[in-house]
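User: Can you model how adenosine-5'-diphosphate sits in this protein?
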Amino acid sequence: MPMTAEGPISTTTPTRLDPLQPQRARPTDDPSAGGDAVKIDVRNVSFWYGASQALWDVSLKIPARKVTALIGPSGCGKSTLLRLLNRMNDLVPGARIGGTIALDGVDIHDRKTEVEILRRRVGMVFQKPNPFPKSIYENVAYGPRIQGIGDRARLDAIVEDSLRRGALWNEVKDRLDQSAIGMSGGQQQRLCIARALATAPEVLLMDEPCSALDPASTAKIEDLIHELRSSVTIAIVTHNMQQAARVSDFTAFMLVGKLLEHGPTEQIFTRPTKKETEDYVTGRFG
Ligand code: ADP
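Assistant: Here's the modeled complex, given as structure tokens:
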């Protein structure tokens, strides 16, 4: 599909993302995603930062309520692809995309798509924990407040539920009014996950969420990913092969801007079809 930085020129007949009626999963079954329902369908996506092309004709089906890991050597385009899934690259000057990305069958670049609604449905957690310089409570309540939820009892319930889902509640329940900046790095990252969960996203994008953390904190985040996979679709970028093998159901291997191979994680790690994949997962390069 042709697109410009000003906006996509859709060649499909898009369905509107209705802000009042967030479309819950109406995914389609697809055998290439292991028979699982497809939540995000990336089709023939190419991407340019100005004159520099970062992605070449990438097609990837991300199954609902499963964990998909994006792996590959540094600079191969993992983060670029991840950021495209909730249009985080929209703000990059000169950025241009070709191809389509559909969420529950709806083109996310359709003119009528409201980016705020899209980002609420497709939340993101970054490499470096980035809590706001506010209290623990206010970090989690931030998104729901923006959504217009002002009722204190309702906010309290959302904050507690999100912190529980972020595996942080027991550690912070007695100090919700303290600044998030005083927390450890691992706690800050779980807070950022809880903050993302507070707007009830259907998809969570995680860009190397453990690379700044110690092994104990990493293990907690990995446990959390296991817990969340029953309710949220997760796409995670990781340079850690063991982590990809531990946490993901599907793995996509990228190399110099192309998606070389995609399949069930067990198959990618034990019976890859491409020599480059085998070399990478066995640590021969990267
Ligand atoms: P990975 O996540 O696999 O390390 P990235 O998606 O970060 O790879 O980068 C892919 C390519 O795009 C690299 O060549 C990188 O230098 C380039 N790139 C990433 N972000 C930008 C940007 N904001 N502007 C220009 N080039 C970028």
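A couple of observations from the model: Residues 1-31 have pLDDT under 50 and may be disordered. Residues 49, 52, 54, 72, 74-80, 92 surround adenosine-5'-diphosphate (CB under 6 Å).
User: Helpful, thanks.
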